[in-house]
């Protein structure tokens, strides 16, 4: 019998503060709980020539943060793998290009799973997570960051659902046809009429609604209109840093009151710092795909070194845990999770690749959380939301 098969009740002796335990106890708890991160931007790395999810990489070499070897080392059972699409023009041509990109990314996710059936499996229900983890495979839920590729035809949402999509957010960095974004123009006063229909369709299909990147007005309306709980897949508390991507305490309480969950992001927890070397490399990075393999590899190494030397902010591991603890104290352990924005700009000083996530479990135990509560943070809360989304869809 492995630790993965032990019931949490058998670990009750580990429920005290970490001061009364040793490091091996924290490791046992981390290995025993189901761990999911709700925002893995790692599919974008599949565009890199020669980059494979099954090879071991290092953030200091090529800037990537997630791969199978590091997931195994860090004990991450899986998560929501993102179809991310940059915001473009809100017109027919823009929608067509975005749809082509999103379909490509969707197929890349399915392809890496199909190529490694011994290591990964697609999940489409809340119940799938534990079943897949029990086989030793990594869990692949599919999410969509920015529903811009759907254009004005919500039949596209159903098509993506049929191909495995189980979480979606309406916007990214820019207002689109569905909703106002945190850093976009206030065009719709929240959701557009199409955006309101998008909420209803997500409820009908059984897709978790993700309000990260949505303007406060859009968040308020999604929370009001949705018949199922919603989540913030990678957001933070405004109480720690007043940034548009973070939410104020009143909205976090409203989210929790309707059964939702905030998955804590590692970004926007302290002011950004100047990054002259990183910024100087941006034009070269934009043309990296056109370089010869050796030149591209050298550029990626310079890029990784620049990012290590010039972190986005002074946010460190303790600051990240402060954000988690603030939200636990504010809304309770049933409404907080982990969504650090890996491979999407996330990571903090002391927690900069997926192999390092056992530190989170250690800190949660040190705060006095029980193993059962730690599992809620890592997976139980988002899976509860998913199960309720499924229940609501079954009734419609």
From TrEMBL:
Stretch forming the signal peptide: 1-20
Superkingdom of the organism of origin: Bacteria
Keywords noted in UniProt: Signal
This protein's record includes keyword Signal: yes
Keyword Signal included in the entry's annotation: yes
InterPro entries given in the database record: Metal_Hydrolase, Pept_M19
Pfam families, alphabetized: Peptidase_M19
Name this polypeptide is given: Peptidase M19
Annotated organism of origin: Blastomonas fulva
Lineage: Bacteria, Pseudomonadati, Pseudomonadota, Alphaproteobacteria, Sphingomonadales
